[in-house]
Structures are given as C-alpha cells and as structure tokens.
C-alpha cells in the first residue's frame, strides 16, 4: 500500500492525449480510483473506448476502468481540474494546448509526459506549455519521465520514473498522485535536464536501432549508449541542466531502456533504416509517433547553434534527412580524430 494524504483521493484529473502513453497513464490513475476525464483526438478511437472499454488502436488488450471517461470536448476535460496531464506527441502539443489553455484554472497543476523538442522554437514541452497556457509558471508545472514503455505499465510491470518540478511541493504532490505499488515515482528539481534526457535519448535510440539493423555487435551498442550519454550531458550542460540528472532515471535510465528495448518505436525505426528501408516509407506506415525523428532536427540545429559537439546525433540527422548511408555514417564516426575520452566537466 502506498500511503497518500487523504486530500489526494479527491483529485480531479484531466488527461489530454490518448495514444499509448496517455491511455496507459489514464488507466493507471483510473485504476487507483481517480475519476478521469480523457480527451481523445480521433472520433473512432473515442467511440471504441466508450463502447468496448478498450483503445484498440494505441493500447490493445487493456481493459479501461469505468471511471475513465473518454471525451471529445477538450475545454471540458481541462477545466475545473486539480491536475491536467498532457501526453500529446510533441509536435502537436502547442496547437492542442493553445486551444484549451484559457480553460485551465489558475491553480491547476499541469504535468507533461511528452518527450520532444519543438523544431521551430527548440523549446522542450515545459517551455511550450508555459507559452500557451495563460498564467502558467514553473511553480505549477511538472514533468513525468523515465524508463517506461506504455505496454509494460499497462501490464503493471514494476516501473520506476521521476517527476521533475522547480517547485518541490508540486513534485511531491504529483508523486503522490501517480505512485502505485508497481509504479514508483521519485522527484527531482531539474526540469530542463529531465526533459533533455527524455528527448535526446530518442535520437540515440534510433542510432542503436541502426546498429542492430546493420547486424553489428554488443560492443558497438554499449559504446553507442556510453557516447550517446556524453552527448546528452553536453547539450544539457549547455542549456543549464544539472550534470547529475543524466545519471538518473531521466538520463541513463531511459537511454538504456530505449536503446535496448524491442518495444521502442525509435529503436524500431532505426533498425529498419539500418536494414535499408527509407524514412518516408516507414513514417507512412506508422500510426504512432517516433519522437526521435523530429527531435533529431531540433538537436542538430541546437548543437550547431550552441557549438556543442554531438557527432552521433548529427550523423542521425544526416541519415534521416540527407539520405546518408548507415555504413558510411558509422565509418565516419569510427574514424574521427582520436581524442581523450572524458570532458573536462
Ligand atoms: N508510448 C510510450 O511507451 C511512451 C512512454 C513515455 C513517453 N511517451 C511520450 O508520450 C508522448 C505521446 O506518445 P504516445 O506513445 O502516447 O502516442 P502514440 O504514438 O501511441 O499515439 C499518437 C497520438 O497522437 C495523437 N494525435 C495524432 N495527431 C494529432 C493531432 N493533430 N492533434 C492531437 N493529437 C494527435 C493521437 O490521437 C494519439 O494519441 C510522446 O511524446 C512520447 O514520446 C510515450
Ligand atoms: O517507444 P519509444 O521509443 O517512443 O519509447 C517510449 C518511452 O520513451 C520509453 O521510456
């Protein structure tokens, strides 16, 4: 049993986004007894969730509790809530939350569970939400992240995540709301570090998939994860993150999961590219999001703008957008100038 403050039990919650992660988290909360208003984008998905109590498109095989209420009314889902959870793909977060931002009450806690960096602004999701939700400050904002495949959380596989907020009280509140005996929640204060770890690992996971698609070995994958973490940390430091964040769940934890787990969409797309398939064909077949594809563009431009050395991430950008051959990319990475391993800081 997780001990919660009695006041937590009556928390009114709205969830925006019913992809695999939005549905898994909404169901997790519903299974704990919270009444959930859940905004579902597609009419047919919403209808199926209402009638069959299943989201067959994004999270098949998981029965939805009766206290999870699918809705197409975005304003109604977010208004009058103690907590609003935003779980849209990062490229539609701005447009979605711009629509309903004014309906969110001034004291509502807003939690982002999306992972990505906007292409146009280079903002992480906390930055986007702060721009589009009137009056939202970092005091009412939190980020839920860490190694967590939706399908495993839905099966109640023991999972450990972290909640980042600039306000420790907000982090502690969100921690209490989400924690279950199979979903352990830590807190940290470094929001930008947590979001960068969560976002850039998707680019490195594409690289890990490419390595597997090329049929390379475990040595290569371990090297990739290690050097990928160096790149994530470098970008993080350049953007004001705390270095220790990257040794935690939002950093190395999520990086290991996504680089090694067959359930990862980012890893899968990388693997197919390694096997010779083209990005545009893969995207045309996918109804889910592989955030690393868009984030690779943001990271490429950010790293150049900030002068941060990120050779793996830059190679993935060229592979995705300039048709760089995977074997050539690997050869270029392996034959870079020889150097000392660790950065000064
Ligand atoms: N799936 C996971 O295991 C997992 C785990 C942790 C974090 N995340 C993150 O959660 C976020 C959401 O991913 P997901 O896996 O739930 O999504 P998904 O890939 O399963 O589904 C896509 C979602 O996008 C929505 N969508 C498509 N077009 C839209 C539009 N124009 N406006 C609004 N919504 C639209 C769909 O309704 C659906 O909810 C991503 O940032 C992802 O990285 C996912
Ligand atoms: O399936 P992916 O690659 O989007 O990864 C899902 C989560 O981010 C893992 O923590």
TrEMBL record:
<protein>
    <recommendedName>
        <fullName>Glycerol-3-phosphate dehydrogenase [NAD(P)+]</fullName>
        <ecNumber>1.1.1.94</ecNumber>
    </recommendedName>
</protein>
<keyword id="KW-0560">Oxidoreductase</keyword>
<dbReference type="InterPro" id="IPR013328">
    <property type="entry name" value="6PGD_dom2"/>
</dbReference>
<feature type="binding site">
    <location>
        <position position="254"/>
    </location>
    <ligand>
        <name>sn-glycerol 3-phosphate</name>
    </ligand>
</feature>
<feature type="binding site">
    <location>
        <position position="265"/>
    </location>
    <ligand>
        <name>sn-glycerol 3-phosphate</name>
    </ligand>
</feature>
<keyword id="KW-0963">Cytoplasm</keyword>
<comment type="pathway">
    <text>Membrane lipid metabolism; glycerophospholipid metabolism.</text>
</comment>
<feature type="binding site">
    <location>
        <position position="201"/>
    </location>
    <ligand>
        <name>sn-glycerol 3-phosphate</name>
    </ligand>
</feature>
<comment type="function">
    <text>Catalyzes the reduction of the glycolytic intermediate dihydroxyacetone phosphate (DHAP) to sn-glycerol 3-phosphate (G3P), the key precursor for phospholipid synthesis.</text>
</comment>
<keyword id="KW-0547">Nucleotide-binding</keyword>
<dbReference type="GO" id="GO:0006650">
    <property type="term" value="P:glycerophospholipid metabolic process"/>
</dbReference>
<feature type="binding site">
    <location>
        <position position="264"/>
    </location>
    <ligand>
        <name>sn-glycerol 3-phosphate</name>
    </ligand>
</feature>
<feature type="binding site">
    <location>
        <position position="21"/>
    </location>
    <ligand>
        <name>NADPH</name>
    </ligand>
</feature>
<dbReference type="InterPro" id="IPR008927">
    <property type="entry name" value="6-PGluconate_DH-like_C_sf"/>
</dbReference>
<feature type="binding site">
    <location>
        <begin position="17"/>
        <end position="22"/>
    </location>
    <ligand>
        <name>NAD(+)</name>
    </ligand>
</feature>
<dbReference type="InterPro" id="IPR006168">
    <property type="entry name" value="G3P_DH_NAD-dep"/>
</dbReference>
<dbReference type="GO" id="GO:0008654">
    <property type="term" value="P:phospholipid biosynthetic process"/>
</dbReference>
<feature type="binding site">
    <location>
        <position position="291"/>
    </location>
    <ligand>
        <name>NADPH</name>
    </ligand>
</feature>
<feature type="binding site">
    <location>
        <position position="289"/>
    </location>
    <ligand>
        <name>NADPH</name>
    </ligand>
</feature>
<dbReference type="InterPro" id="IPR006109">
    <property type="entry name" value="G3P_DH_NAD-dep_C"/>
</dbReference>
<dbReference type="Pfam" id="PF07479">
    <property type="entry name" value="NAD_Gly3P_dh_C"/>
</dbReference>
<dbReference type="GO" id="GO:0141152">
    <property type="term" value="F:glycerol-3-phosphate dehydrogenase (NAD+) activity"/>
</dbReference>
<keyword id="KW-0444">Lipid biosynthesis</keyword>
<feature type="binding site">
    <location>
        <position position="265"/>
    </location>
    <ligand>
        <name>NADPH</name>
    </ligand>
</feature>
<feature type="binding site">
    <location>
        <position position="148"/>
    </location>
    <ligand>
        <name>sn-glycerol 3-phosphate</name>
    </ligand>
</feature>
<dbReference type="GO" id="GO:0005975">
    <property type="term" value="P:carbohydrate metabolic process"/>
</dbReference>
<keyword id="KW-0521">NADP</keyword>
<feature type="binding site">
    <location>
        <position position="146"/>
    </location>
    <ligand>
        <name>sn-glycerol 3-phosphate</name>
    </ligand>
</feature>
<dbReference type="InterPro" id="IPR011128">
    <property type="entry name" value="G3P_DH_NAD-dep_N"/>
</dbReference>
<comment type="similarity">
    <text>Belongs to the NAD-dependent glycerol-3-phosphate dehydrogenase family.</text>
</comment>
<feature type="binding site">
    <location>
        <position position="20"/>
    </location>
    <ligand>
        <name>NADPH</name>
    </ligand>
</feature>
<feature type="domain" description="Glycerol-3-phosphate dehydrogenase NAD-dependent N-terminal">
    <location>
        <begin position="13"/>
        <end position="170"/>
    </location>
</feature>
<keyword id="KW-0520">NAD</keyword>
<keyword id="KW-1208">Phospholipid metabolism</keyword>
<dbReference type="GO" id="GO:0051287">
    <property type="term" value="F:NAD binding"/>
</dbReference>
<feature type="active site" description="Proton acceptor">
    <location>
        <position position="201"/>
    </location>
</feature>
<dbReference type="GO" id="GO:0005829">
    <property type="term" value="C:cytosol"/>
</dbReference>
<keyword id="KW-0594">Phospholipid biosynthesis</keyword>
<feature type="binding site">
    <location>
        <position position="150"/>
    </location>
    <ligand>
        <name>NADPH</name>
    </ligand>
</feature>
<keyword id="KW-0443">Lipid metabolism</keyword>
<dbReference type="GO" id="GO:0046167">
    <property type="term" value="P:glycerol-3-phosphate biosynthetic process"/>
</dbReference>
<dbReference type="InterPro" id="IPR036291">
    <property type="entry name" value="NAD(P)-bd_dom_sf"/>
</dbReference>
